Amino acid sequence: MPRLILWILIFAFNLQFIDSFASGDPVKRQVITHNNKRFGIEQILSKYLQIPSESGHELEAGEFLKQLCEENGLHITQMGSSDGNYNFSASLRPLEAGLPNIIFLNHIDVVPPGNENHWEVPPYSGKIVDSEIWGRGAFDNKGTAVMHLFSLIEMAQRYEGKILDYNVTMLSVSCEETQCDGGISYVIDNYFDLLNPEVVIGEGPPGIKGLIDNHPDQALFGISVTQKRSLWLQLSLDIKTSGHSSVTPKSYANKEMITALNELLNEKNEIIYNDVNVGILKQLGILSGGVNGFVLKHPRLFKSVISKKLREDELLLALFSNTITLTSIKDDNDELNAIPTKITATLDCRLLPETSTDEFIADLKETLDNDAISIEVLKQMNTKVVTSSNTNFYKNMAAAIQQHYPESKSGAVMLPNSNDVAAFREKDVLAYSVVPVKIDRKYLETIHTFNERVPVAILEQGKNTYVSFLERCITIQTPRESVELVSRLRANATTLFSIKI
Predict the structure, then answer these.
(1) How far apart are CA 281 and CA 277, in angstroms?
(2) What is the predicted pLDDT for the residue at 110?
(3) Of 190, 219, 393, 437, whose Cβ has the fewest other Cβ atoms within 10 Å?
(4) In what order do the strands lie in the sheet with 374-380?
(5) Average pLDDT over residues 174-187
(6) Domain ranges across the chain
(7) How many whole angstroms separate alpha carbon 231 and alpha carbon 418?
(8) What is the spatial distance between Cα 187 and Cα 92, in angstroms, rounded to a whole number?
(9) CA atoms of 63 and 139, how far apart (whole Å)
(10) Is the dihedral of CA 48, 54, 55, 60 positive or negative?
């Protein structure tokens, strides 16, 4: 989850705001069982952080997390058991029961820690120092996973023996950071029907203070309803020339590619206004007030003024434009005095949801202005779906956040990055991205870099918020409803069994 998420919340609040209606519940200390001993949430996260799980090497960490789920009474379904594709679900009720499912999605893998000498505390120590817990994955995404785990275990204990209208599942997958063929794509291809997802809650922005000048102490929570689409392209150019560089030819591969890339990367981004980012501006205007607030509340009227301001900050511009980043250039030459005949470049493109891939590539070719350069799509995310914020699940999450952070505001956002939640949006499943904790920006600045850590206190707060969300969603069935529900479940189970045969 890139650090860009830190800054987008400045412009990232849309559609609905929910007024304070309750004070936060007191933080309750919960313990769970591991190897016949009892541990608190920060102790479990510490142990989890001590197991390296860089993408493609998730098995040991996944086994640890699965064992915790089994020891504490959750129902397990293995969905891949090897490095690079270690995935499992842990549920209140067996998936075979066929209940519509509320899914908490997290990933086991982490990015490499980089040069460990730059860490103040070793990246796989899991040490707790001055009320902070250190380690690669403390926020992204092991901290979130542990909050999911503890919330499910608490719900399992509260609703033991009761017939519910929803199942609740923690889905832990591999390979989110590198988007390999395992992980969520494998789960969707092979277990989607068994999961029976009604809604998916995945990783996303937390609540951050200090984003609104005239309300510096107010925490703003973004609940992501969509994301920009990722599109990875490779450009290739092959020009046969004389081999020795002592005589410079008029045209050669490196020169032509660099010239074309220079045109592409220096072209001004077209600013595109859509329903989501216009709503973002309007709600930011409500928060800001004054003249600036009036301008933001009428973005189409003051489009030229706002567009100029957006161009001053590339982090904000990313929410209103399709972006292109040059990530590598390679040629086939290892000699200092030889002219390479072939050069390739890779581009990381992030497209607004409504943008057509074919039209984007056509515009890119026109800007490159070199018919000899070929363009290959390496990988892309296809979803253009915006999940509605007018659902009970969205409203229940916003209300749960308001309960535990009564001075906060929450609203729907668009993220400039993609994550595994998008795979469910592609299947038309309701999907939201949020981590319901309030955290200072200094901690988010350590994601994907050195000294990643989180305050211990946010773990219980986030877990309690997830529990409040679930309690708003789940209804205990009356005796008559239970009989009807059991009949439906038996029918679903029979169907599933027949399909498997």
Answers:
(1) 6
(2) 98
(3) 190
(4) 323-331, 342-351, 229-238, 374-380
(5) 93
(6) 5-226+384-500, 227-272+314-380, 273-310
(7) 10
(8) 19
(9) 20
(10) negative
**Rounded Cα distance, 312 and 321, in Å:** 13
User: Distance between CA 397 and CA 166 in Å, rounded?
Assistant: 16
Task: Say which amino acid occupies 359.
Answer: E
Answer whether residue 212 shows pLDDT above 90.
no
- Measured CA to CA, the distance from residue 13 to residue 283 in angstroms comes to 6
pLDDT digits (tens, 9 = 90+) for 77-117: 999 999 999 999 999 999 999 999 999 999 999 999 999 99
Domain 227-272+314-380 matching CATH 3.90.180.10: the answer reads: no
CATH 3.40.630.10, applies to 5-226+384-500: yes
Residues 6 or more apart whose Cβ sits within 8 Å of residue 416: 2, 4, 5, 8, 227, 228, 318, 319, 323, 350
Alpha-carbon distance of 277 to 462, in angstroms, equals 27
Burial letters for 154-180: b for 16+ Cβ neighbours within 10 Å, e otherwise? bbbeebeeebbebbbbbbbbbbbbebb
pLDDT in the model for residue 479: 58
Rounded CA gap, 436 and 410, in Å?
10
The per-residue pLDDT of the chain, averaged, comes to: 88
pTM of the model: 0.83
Looking at the DSSP assignment, which residues form a beta bridge with residue 377?
A: 233
Rounded distance between C-alpha atoms, residue 48 and residue 135, angstroms: 10
Which residues, in sequence order, are bridge partners of residue 91? 75, 169
24 Cβ contact list (under 8 Å, min separation 6): 403, 404, 405, 406
Structural contact between residues 490 and 422, judged by C-beta atoms closer than 8 angstroms: no
